[in-house]
Amino acid sequence: MSRPPIRHELSQLESNLRKEIGTLAESKQLKLDSQDQSLCELIAQLTDLGLCEHPLFIQVTKLDAALCQLDIGLYGLCSDCESEIGINRLAIDPVEQRCEKCAENHEHEHRQELRLTH
């Protein structure tokens, strides 16, 4: 994938996420400016509001990571093993951070952590 289409796709995703976060804030009557903040500021504010477990928070953090990776030329590489993430995985989720093997390992480890903490 070349950079401009990816950047455009990620920008569209960012716009959609900001709208969804704005809707969430309105529904929960939270004071949150989802449009005029950088992604880092938005992530910090969502953290302060205790929304770290919300799926939108997770998507925003993955988006921020993908944009950072794109800026430094590492987009499409697994954050764990640095192998290329399959094009099909990125087509399904352009903010995917792990190759299939590492994603499976991460999921398995996460389930183990949940068992130990509950």
Fold and architecture overview:
With 118 residues, this protein is an all-alpha fold. It has a single domain (3-117), classed as Four Helix Bundle (Hemerythrin (Met), subunit A) (Up-down Bundle). Helix content is 64%, strand content 0%. It is built from 5 helices and no strands. The chain has helices at residues 3-27, 39-48, 55-71, 87-92, 100-117. It is globular.
CATH class: Mainly Alpha
Q: What spatial form do the alpha-carbon principal axes imply?
A: globular
CATH superfamily: DksA, coiled-coil domain
Distance between the termini: 42 Å
Which sequence of SSEs, written as H and E, runs from N to C?
A: HHHHH
The CATH architecture designation is Up-down Bundle
Instruction: Give the domain tally.
Output: 1
Supply the number of helical segments.
5
CATH T-level fold name = Four Helix Bundle (Hemerythrin (Met), subunit A)
Average pLDDT value?
90
Rg measurement, Å: 16 Å
Structure keywords:
mainly alpha; Four Helix Bundle (Hemerythrin (Met), subunit A)
Short account of what is shown:
This protein has 118 residues and is mainly alpha-helical.
Describe the protein's topology.
Blueprint: H1 3-27, H2 39-48, H3 55-71, H4 87-92, H5 100-117
